[in-house]
Design brief:
heterodimer; A: 156 residues; alpha/beta; B: 147 residues; 4 helices; 7 strands
């Protein structure tokens, strides 16, 4: 199953949804799209607007590949579920974003090779066939949580 | 100990959920936005209207925030922004509550509006990228990221 997350931004991400719906029509694989506020509704792919966060996590784990926007929440969720998400940044010129971000976080993650940054949706179909989207990779474990715990305990 | 967790919904809240083990063993409550903040299955959560960069809305949110803080009486508030942190943490400072601020992981090489306003108040100020240390000052510390 391929899971597509467009997030909670108030502008729809029709360009990505349409492309993934097209791909869904050509493959036997199940494509599930979280469409958010987009007006366009997929014809072939399964879709829903919003679900509780726990369900997003469950779908990310089940999926063999995750496609999402350059929002930090979506990227982090996919990476923590052991996926290498294909990240398609929203663009202001297509009415998908309030402004063009520099995608700084996505570019840092791409350097670390924990995501794939893909601007051109026409390349999605080929990209999705690569081996790296069929594997689960354990996310790195950082120590911020344990340091924060220490701070909380020692601050009083 | 009572710990308040204050952040916008979406990416900020998702980040906080990655480090939830830091709060284990403490009583916690959340203050977040009512946009999709209700969809995270949080316990003991207070939802408020989105603030954006509108100082009038910051002022208008103060009675609600005061009520919550007086009721919950946290010893510490942990926040990673965004604007929701501004009225909440200034009020918290006046009430003698300790402040831990974590700059969001999305800030790789530029300080945030919220971060700059909160930096002088924070007891502990954490960034998630080493190159961010120089964007703030001596108080800023780096101990890795939320994952």
């Amino acid at each position: 199953m391929i899971f597509v997350i467009t997030g909670t931004h108030y502008q729809g991400f029709e360009r990505l949804i349409k492309k993934m719906d097209e791909i869904a029509a050509k493959t036997n694989e199940n494509v599930i799209i979280q469409v958010g506020y987009a007006k366009y509704k997929p014809e072939t792919a399964e879709y829903f607007d919003f679900v509780p966060y726990a369900k997003i996590v469950e779908l990310c784990r089940e999926a063999r590949a995750v496609i999402c926007t350059d929002g930090s929440g979506s990227m982090i969720t996919a990476i923590k579920c052991g996926k290498i998400p294909i990240v398609v940044p929203r663009k202001q010129e297509y009415g998908e974003a309030a402004y063009n971000t520099k995608s700084s976080l996505a570019r840092e993650f791409a350097k670390e090779n924990v995501i794939t940054l893909l601007e051109d949706t026409d390349k999605l179909e080929v990209e999705l066939k690569k081996d790296r989207y069929y594997v689960t990779v354990p996310p790195r474990k950082d120590n911020l949580a344990s340091k924060l715990k220490e701070y909380i305990e020692n601050i009083g | 100990m009572k710990v308040g967790i204050v952040c916008s919904d979406g990416g900020h809240l998702t980040e906080m959920l990655q480090i939830k083990e830091a709060f284990e063993g403490h009583d916690t409550f959340f203050i977040t936005y009512n946009v999709v903040g209700g969809g995270y299955g949080l316990e003991n959560v207070y939802l408020m209207n989105i603030l954006k960069k509108n100082p009038l809305r910051y002022l208008a949110s103060l009675p609600f925030l005061l009520k919550v803080l007086l009721k919950e009486k946290p010893k510490i508030i942990v926040s990673n922004g965004a604007e929701i942190a501004i009225p909440t943490l200034y009020l918290a400072k006046l009430l003698g509550i300790k402040i831990i601020f974590i700059e969001t992981i999305a800030r790789v090489d530029e300080s945030s509006f919220t971060g700059r306003l909160i930096y002088p108040l924070a007891n502990i100020f954490l960034v998630q990228w080493p190159q961010m240390l120089e964007k703030y000052g001596k108080k800023a510390r780096y101990h890795g990221r939320v994952f």
